[in-house]
Structure formats: structure tokens, C-alpha cells
Amino acid sequence: MPSKPKLGQNFLNDPQAAERIAASLGELSGRTVVEIGPGAGAITGALAARAAHVLAVELDPGLAAHLRTQFSPDRVTVLCQDVLHFDFAAASAAASQRLCVFGNLPYYITAPILLKLAASHAALDRAILMVQREVADRAAAPPGSRDYGLLSVTVQVHGPAQTLFTLAPSSFSPPPEVHSTVFRWRFAPRFAEFAVEETSFLSLVRKAFAQKRKTLANNLRAAQYSPATVAAALERAAIDPNARAEALPIEAFAALWHCLTEAER
């Protein structure tokens, strides 16, 4: 079927890659898989062959109608809706299990979908996601590396991320202008481990990375923390006062959260 560029549609045309992607989700017997943006169904069939059921969430009504003619409803349920409005918690409850997810994410909406998945972590077990190569590199980047930043911490505090393999533009129709990387994200949130409150911790991380060229201390002061509070919190958390957020592991952000939270009491 013809793609619609405004929807970021680049259809996978490599059968071997489709099988490799489906296999990357691991054992799927008895599992329910949510497929984000199935498009023309290149990977849907491979998922349906492995899983008990696939929930295919497709925004394009024409593609959704096409998918319904291609797959039996007892194996694949096609839902014509925006995945940003999809209720993962309800789907998980209906399936009586945490969900597996696959998505070939449109480049223009990748970040909102990743945030949606993060917010839905309680309903999710693992995800295999195909995104622009640079985004996957950022999601899986270690502290101190060139690609480490807000996305890295946001993803990794919800569970480990690992890049798997990269596909060239020729694997898609029409070919995108970028390479696409497949990465695995296992949902194992670390908020309880660090004894931090999820919403306020993520808010602190956003403030810490607000201006990439600024030091962590400057970003915190710009976020309306007093200079004295910032200096004391950094000292108590054993963080270099000249450090940038890009150098800090998640453990350091957790220590900083505790120090700042205590200072505000």
C-alpha cells in the first residue's frame, strides 16, 4: 500500500529483518503483544505466529481496514486509534498479564511515544522499538558519553535499554533519509530502589538537563533553587560543583533528589 509521508510512514520491506525483530522480543507463547503502527503488516504476521494475540494500534484508517482483511481477528485485533490515547493499563488488565510491545516509531512522534511507554511502565514487560539511529543511541547511552542526556536517564530509570541492530534506508519503502536502529527496553523501574518519588524525580532530571552547555549547578539555580541550597545539596550528594548533568549516573541524580527534597522540608 502507498505510504503517507505526513504520518511518517516508511514500510519495512525486508522479510528477514521482520523475523529478526519479532525474535528479539523473546518467547511469546501465551503472551499479548501491542504493535504500535503496524502499517502494512510486515511484522504483524511474524508477531502473530509467535504470540497468543496481537493488538495492532494503527492511526491510518485505510491501513487499519487493510490489516483486518489480512489477519484473523482471533489472532490480531486491529485498533484504529492514536497510540498516545491507547490505554495500556486496561489492555494489560484484560490480558491478565504485563504486555510486550513492538513499534516502528514514526520519527516525528518518537519522543512522545517513549514518554507514553514510560508512563505506562506498570502495564509493560518489555519492548522492541525501531527508531532513528541517533535516538536509540541516546536511549541506551552510558553516563559521560556524547549521547547521554535527558532521554537516556528517562528511559533507563524505567529499565535497561540495549541497542540490537541497525537497518539501512533500503530496508524500507519509501527509503527514509536516516538509518533505523532496533533497541530492547525492559521495564524494571528503579524509583523504589532509590526511594525517590517518580514525578518529582523526573522533574528534577528535566531541570538538570535544561541547558546542555550549563553546569548542573547553574541549571538548578535557573530552576529557582537558591545558590546556598544548590551548593549544600551538591556537597552532601558528593557531586562536583562544576559537573554537568551529562556526567552523572542515575544513582547521583537520586542522591541529589534526596538532598534537595530534605532542604525543601
Write a structural description:
With 265 residues, the protein is of the alpha/beta class. The chain folds into 2 domains: 185 residues, 3-Layer(aba) Sandwich (Rossmann fold), CATH 3.40.50; 72 residues, rRNA adenine dimethylase, C-terminal domain (Helicase, Ruva Protein, domain 3). The chain is 40% helix and 18% strand. It has 12 helices and 9 strands. The strands form 2 sheets. It has a 7-stranded mixed β-sheet, sandwiched between helices. It has a two-stranded antiparallel ribbon with strand order 1-8. Helix 11 crosses helix 12. It is elongated and about 65 Å long. The termini are far apart.
Which key phrases capture this entry?
2 domains, 12 helices, elongated, alpha/beta, single chain, 265 residues, Rossmann fold, Helicase, Ruva Protein, domain 3, 40% helix
Task: Describe the structure concisely.
This protein has 265 residues and is an alpha/beta fold.
How is this fold's topology laid out?
Elements: E1 11-12, H1 15-24, E2 32-36, H2 44-50, E3 53-58, H3 61-70, E4 76-80, H4 88-95, E5 99-104, H5 110-119, E6 124-132, H6 133-140, H7 150-156, E7 161-167, E8 172-173, E9 180-186, H8 191-194, H9 198-208, H10 216-222, H11 227-236, H12 250-264
Parallel strand pairs: 2-3, 2-5, 3-4, 5-6
Antiparallel strand pairs: 1-8, 6-9, 7-9
Helix pairs in contact: 6-7, 11-12
